Structures are given as structure tokens and as C-alpha cells.
Fold this protein.
Amino acid sequence: MRKIVLLICVSLLTVTVIFSQKHIFSFNKTDFHLDGKPFQIISAEIHPGRVPQMYWHHRIQMAKAMGCNTIAVYVFWNYLEETPGVFDFKTENRNIAQFIKFCQEEGMWVLLRPGPYVCGEWDLGGLPSWLLKIPDIKLRCMDERYLIAVKRYVAALSKELKPLLCSNGGPILMVQVENEYGSYGNDRLYVKTLHDLWLKNGVDVPFYTADGATPHMLEAGSLPGCAIGLDSGTNDADFNEATKCNPNVPVFSSETYPGWLTHWKEQFAKPDTAALLKEVRYLLENKKSVNFYVIHGGTNFGFWAGANAFSPTQYQPDLTSYDYDAPINEQGQPTPKYFALRKLISQYVSYNIPYVPKSPEAIEIPEFQLQSLTSIWNNLSKPLLSAQPKPMEMLDQASGFVLYRTRLIGHKSGNLTITEPHDFALVLLNGQLVDTIYRDGGRWTIKLPKTNVKEPVLDILVEGMGRINFAQYMIDRKGITDRVSLNGMTLMNWEIFSLPMTEKYITSLQSNTQNQHDGVFFSGKFNVEKPADTYLDMSNYGKGVVWVNGHNLGRYWKVGPQKRLYCPANFMLKGENKVTVLDLLNSEPKSLKGLKTLE
């Protein structure tokens, strides 16, 4: 036993010595070098913002036990600066420096992916939604109003992370400039300006860009002097294309995909493992560096899930779960894909791969009944009066819901058109649900029935379901973004009620069972002897949001494929736990239960 303890102590001391001294990471035309010796990056991507802090060590250890030597880290700007000029690097999962220190403690190097834009199936690709309060702002370019905010972010983040650069004794080897810019724009001056900003703020390690392996993307997104990452690099043709773009820097696969994302109304993505192993074998045999995007996805807690759109009327919101069919699943367990990759990597690396850590405990929670609590209609704030509807961003609201109310004068029935509803709307006339409107597909007109009321009250409750995070339609404000018309007549004089659904709002709700329709809060309690991970089964409910002890688990929707929401152990208390559910489509309370798995 003494010998084992001594060996562990010596091992930990060795890791500390390796990372406490300064290192030089560099590259030539073909290879990366660490302290003058060739170094093959085998990286596992993990996003701290999606993983409870209590599990950070475990997920890093899992990546190491799969054979990886590096962790790639997306930094979500909007998660750190939710209010302009106010940065939070400490609460919940926001302590990026601590996550990187944990990587260092586990003997792992780091690739830093700080944006400012990152994509990542995250709301607005990591850009703060308050930028969209400027009516004519342009993102990811030399718009000075955008750049003022970017400069503030780069300065704040650099201050946090400079001590963790390998040149200062930390684990950060390389920093990415922007992300897949060649898929978005062609402002090379903008990309160079970002690169210069990091340098100006003391980030003195090498840089890389990441783009698809096509000539136009590589030309628009790459920079002289920066290594080229390919999203993804799968064969000789991909790497040759990048080398043609810049023969003076090395090329690596900066996003090799072991899984894939899933939108609502789709089936869970489950890519072929055989094709993945063939691709990874090619990279390892040819000594190509690689980053697995992602090795562990985690969860889009709260309202942070993003969306995709490739036409003006398309809208594809992402699930709350970011399981991604990754080698390490949402709750931190190794999958068959994990063990297949571990076996393959072990055949090509010279270092010892450690044992796979034990998975966190998961529990079932017996079925328990919810009760009606109150409704949105009983908990409205003071309205803003406006001639026309305004989107959330103009209300200084980042997420949640907005209620728009007006009285019908002139036309009182017929074709009601919302231009444009972002993203899901309930339309009510005199407190009665008429229909719902979903943004995707551009079918934004419904029939309003006739009524005997002299001035009927029209309510439109709009849910924002995540801002577009990729490609050209990223200016994606939430709520009603243009106008509402009835038989072509523009409806005026609106009351606008902001409903951001903050933790303070949810925990302060009081019982009031009047107006129990179309936006009902339900509450219930369950008990646990010892907090552990579980999945709340929402299959009895329609569409809405769930909170456990005030913690927002995220959105659910009966259209699937996701019917269960991950609740990590740190959201629970020993003994009694309170659940609050907001459902847009059900007015009657149902039961819930906790299960051990996503599916």
C-alpha cells in the first residue's frame, strides 16, 4: 500500500512540475512542436457552460481515459456578460479559469476556443443578445458598435486566462481566432483585427482558424501565420486543399464529429461508428492532430439552446439535451463508441491510458402528482405601451416569453397575420385560445372568429426558442419582430408584458387558481435520501419549461424526440425538492417521475 501511495504522489508531482514550468508551443510547415519536440494533439472537446461544475474533474478524467491528451474549450461570451459591461467569471458553470486549472491538474493541455462567435448550437452562437437592441447592427464584421463590445470581452477574458497560457506555465497551447468564418463572411480585415486584439491583450501563444475544407471557406476564414483547422479533415484531399490555401502552416482536424446535433421534431442523431473509426484511424496513422467535437456534450440548461436556419422562413431549434450521441453521454457515462475509440487510440499513442473513472450515480424517482399553482395571466408585470410590437431585445430581455395585447378596432375577425413570430405563439381572443403559430415554414396566418364583444381583446403570447447560431440569418430577435395585421390592417396600440422567467420570478409565484388556461404553472414535490442524477419524464405534458428548486432544466416539447430532461445531483437537496412546470398546451395537472436515462 505504501508503495502505491508513493507512486501516486510521485505521479502527481510529475504532473505539477510539467505544468508549473513555462513551455513553448510552436509549429513549422507540417507539424506542431512542444518544447522543440513533435507533438500530436489528440483533443476532446468539452464545454464548461454545459456541464455542472461538480462534474468538471470527472469529465476531464473521462477524456484522458479515452486516450486524449488535450481538452478543447468553447467559451460562451453571452454566458459571461449577460448585462453589458458586467462580467461573471464565478457563478454556476462560468469559472472558465477554474475549468482550465482542472485540466492542468489532470495533466491535460488545452485548446482555447473563445470566439467571440463560436456557433456550438448555443444561443446566437455565443454572441450577447443585447447587441441586437441596436436596430441596424451588423455582427461578425467591422461594425464599430459591435467591435466596441468585442474589445471589452477580449480584454476581460484575456485578463482571466493569461496566467494559464503555456508560455506562463499553464496548459493553454493554442487559441482559435473566430470560428468557421468562411461559412459566414469574407471580411478578412475583421478576422485579422480579432487576431491583433488577442495579441494586444497579451495572448502570446500560437493561433489557428477553423473552417470547412473547401477553397472559398479556407480563403475567407484563414489567416497568414495561423495554423489551419478543418471542420472536419477526413482524407488526403481535405488536407491538400488546406495546404494549397497556406503551405506554410500545419493543418489538423479541428472538429472530427463522433456524433451530431438534433433539432426538435427529428429523430435522435446516431451517426455510424464504423465510419468514425475509419476516419480517426486515417488521422492517427498519418500523425494528424485531431479534436473530437464533442467528446461530451452536456446540457443546454435554461434558455441557452440555439437554432439553425438556412432560408428566411426555416427555423430548426435545438434540443435541451446536448447529448450529441457523443462518446461520453449527457450524464457522463461511457458509451460503446467511447470504448471503441479508446481501443483505437491506444494502438497509436506511446503514453499509458488510465482506467475509466466510475460514472456518477443515477436514480429513479417514484411517480408524484403535480398540482395547479397559478398562470402567466395572474403574474403579469406592468406593461410597456407601444404603437407597434417590439421584440424582446428592445425590452432589455434576453430570453423567455413576451405577451402582446391590443383591442380590436375596425376589423374584428378574419385573417390574422403575425410578421414575423419568433418563435412559438399562442393566439387568444377574449381569453380563449384560437390557435398556435410556429415560426418554421412561414405559415403565420390564422383565422380569428367573430365575437359579440365590441372591442375584442387580442393576446399573443410568444416563446423565444433559441436564437439562430449559424450562417447568414443570425440577426434573430425574439417575440414579434415586425407587425401584426388583420385582413391587411396593421394593428396598433399594444401593451407589452415582459416575461423573462427568471429564478426570482419562479420562486416567488403564489398559489392562485384563477385564469388556469394556456400558460399554467404546476408545482409538486419529491423526496430523495441522497441527491443523484435523474431525468424528469415530461411525456405527460405538452410544451414548456421545468424548474427544480429554482434551477431551470430547460425546454420540453411533446413533438420530441426528447421527452426527458436531465436533472443533475447538484440541483437537488437531501429530503424535499420542489418542481415547477410551465406548460403552454395543458391546463390540467399530470404526474411526473424520474428515470435513469435520456431514452
Remarks:
- Confidence is low (pLDDT under 50) at residues 1-18.
- The chain has three domains: 19-346, 365-371+509-595, 380-499.
